[in-house]
Amino acid sequence: MSEQTISRRRLIGAGTAAGLGAMLGRVPGVGAAGSERTADVVVVGAGFAGLTAALRVMQAGHSVIVLEARDRVGGRAFNRPIGGGEISERGATFVGPTQNHILNLAGEFGVHKFPTFEDGDNVYVNAQGQRSTYNDQGPLGTAPPDPTILPDLIPAILTLDQMSTQVPVNAPWSSSNAGDWDNQTLASWVADRSVNPNFRKLVAVATRPIFGAEPRELSLLFTLFYIAASGDETHPGTFERNFNTHDGAQMWRFFGGTQRIPLKMAHALGNRVALNSPVQQIGQANGRVIAQCGSLQVRAKRAIVAIPPTLAGRIEYTPRLPSNRDQLTQRLPQGTLIKATAVYDEPFWRDAGLNGQAVSFSGPANVTFDDSPPDGSKGVVFGFIGGDEARKFQRMTKANRKAALLANFKTYFGSRAGHPRQYFETNWSQETWTRGCPVGIAGPGTLLEYGPALRKPVGRIHWAGTETSTYWNGYMDGAVRSGERAAGEVLAEL
Amino acid sequence: MSEQTISRRRLIGAGTAAGLGAMLGRVPGVGAAGSERTADVVVVGAGFAGLTAALRVMQAGHSVIVLEARDRVGGRAFNRPIGGGEISERGATFVGPTQNHILNLAGEFGVHKFPTFEDGDNVYVNAQGQRSTYNDQGPLGTAPPDPTILPDLIPAILTLDQMSTQVPVNAPWSSSNAGDWDNQTLASWVADRSVNPNFRKLVAVATRPIFGAEPRELSLLFTLFYIAASGDETHPGTFERNFNTHDGAQMWRFFGGTQRIPLKMAHALGNRVALNSPVQQIGQANGRVIAQCGSLQVRAKRAIVAIPPTLAGRIEYTPRLPSNRDQLTQRLPQGTLIKATAVYDEPFWRDAGLNGQAVSFSGPANVTFDDSPPDGSKGVVFGFIGGDEARKFQRMTKANRKAALLANFKTYFGSRAGHPRQYFETNWSQETWTRGCPVGIAGPGTLLEYGPALRKPVGRIHWAGTETSTYWNGYMDGAVRSGERAAGEVLAEL
Questions:
Q1: How far apart, in Å, do the first and last CA atoms of chain B sit?
Q2: By CB atoms within 10 Å of each CB, which of A123, A350, B14, B419 scores lowest?
């Protein structure tokens, strides 16, 4: 069986096509005999986190069943074919240095990386709408070298990086300044330091793609944690890694797209992965855990719930979750991020000395990247539309959205950008089984008050997902790390 | 049938005892023939909001069915018998001037109000642990007349009240300062104005009972909205009404307890109210809405969902909700509030010239009230344990919690307080069908970005619940108002 077909094939059916037909004509599961399966471990969610956990459990010689709500694996990693055997990533796209867990996993499955295209200049559109270009391999990286903003920008980034060194990634709430830092938003902190309104706007230009959020939505403590987490055990995290291509989290891509890895993982797991199987209930009793989706019951010794906390909170638990865990799930909403992609016959911007990357005060797409196939046989550029820009964008008509996006691209890359062969959007807030991207975000108070509940198992239920990771939280690497950690917890108990 | 029995009787059964038995032995609804009912309107939730909406729909001559998840009506209004035919309120307790919608509704059902006991002095325990008493009917009301704090306290309250006049209760996000005020927390605003750490602590003493939250959890804009909403169309809201007894929201109580009103409403609605009926799905198609709980389907022309947004977000909608509505439900968590109640043979504190009210820097119970029966035949005092105090309290053993609470009460009211006849706690964060109290709270960004989705109907689904109210949001009056508003929306379309 090919990788591609796995994403469509229904490996085992749980009988829960919970769509309109089910609503109008029948009750999910009613009339069908309930089926039952047993395994050592049941995993909820077949994104990077859940598949990694399942794989490690299987490799350790234990039985495992993965229940996935969607008709495909990969979660926030999702390839879209663009013809000619090539794809563009609707979600997770890049990897970079210190992300060794996703890199090792990719290597394990023979998925190789290649450098993100970065020959040539970046485009910058400043607050006055003036376009310029610059080279991003200098000391500032992708940060635009705008002389009206640098006096605020450089000390702000250095200060945030410095503050982040005081935030332990495994317990941000234990930082000696946690009380002060979780009392305020990133927006408050920036406002207290800067009287330059354009600098404040630039901070939002950065937080929209990184968090899918405005600076007002982010606790300062959470922001510092996120920075601290952007590294590994031997390389302290920096804010720069989040927005840089060169030496940053956007440095490399994977041949065939990021979803190739979960597709291959699912292939290895075979019929241990059940698609179209949204879990409604998880019960614990008599030394067992039981996951229920429609008429299918999976009985196991341990469960790993590998979905965002806001989705985990929508499952019914018996007995109910401790209130600190339940209230955590009420307080870690998914960010708001849309990706809009244009496909051209060729990456024409390269001929003009541009690398396809733009940073712009004028949205909807404040940031763009080149996502062309490695051989440049097509030209693909996508824009990130995040936070307030995303909320505004999704209120527009389809035609107006496309026009606004292509107007951005024309400003950045010239008139040819106005005539793509293909144009498509991916609004992760409209995905029932994700509810927002790229990550769950914490406002003031959440980490301080509920952080310890992020990873603490509840009886036989363990928690995974990139939102639970100590490093590269919000990234594929964090998801893989979380799956390994949860598998380790479970294997120690089997 | 008596009022009391309604709360226990299962009026119509939906077959969804979704407890451990259901998890282990059978799938809810499986094997049972699905039953179906039809009405003009289906209401989800039998708290004040849902019952008010249902009553108005019924009174207008239309058919209605109310689906309630619990085995009782009343939501956050819940009487606990304390013997001798008397009760103490586990949840909502007080009403006050400008709350005319709950007062009128109570009058309609012959439930009369009486004054909260306030003869005598309040107790104050300052930041140094020193106890004093004061009269709360002066210009400061319940705010303690601490000379070390007043220089911060009085201007802060007056400034918040003044700022709140610029916040339209029906659209706080349209205030000309909304961007600035929703960028920051109440904690940031207080910190910017005050160098007195004790004043900052006193702000938390106030927000814990009012919001079940710390100042860091509250957007300044949301706080100002809440103040503006603490009044009516002709009396501007004030912060003071939230914490005052005299002329404030704690001025009166109801004979027989607040739950008597929903019990009488349910009696009037008769078998239109179905208990034990948690709604799992709401579908819309072909000009109809269908609410599903277990094997029961209710088909209607319109639905009114009258539960907190965080719970409304856990229902499965077909088609899915617009993303701005779904992301709102991810961003309005319930507060964290516990009520601990002690029952004595008599209200002995009254003989000592005390009215049973205390304000204290030392928790767990930062605030107490006299909840004795109107004839004083027993002595009842309860403490509010909110925000960080509640999160700390619920990690303690049962014995330690009781000891800590009674230590508070002894400090406030003397040694007799250490020997209650009864002691009980109500932790609303552990209530599956409430998930926190007293209200859904908004951190920075939520109102500005998602506020318009609070009340906007989604097709044939209308939203009620105190969290949707323009006045007395978070109070019974707001719940009643929201039910009336939602009923009005629906009746205009039938």
A1: 32
A2: B419
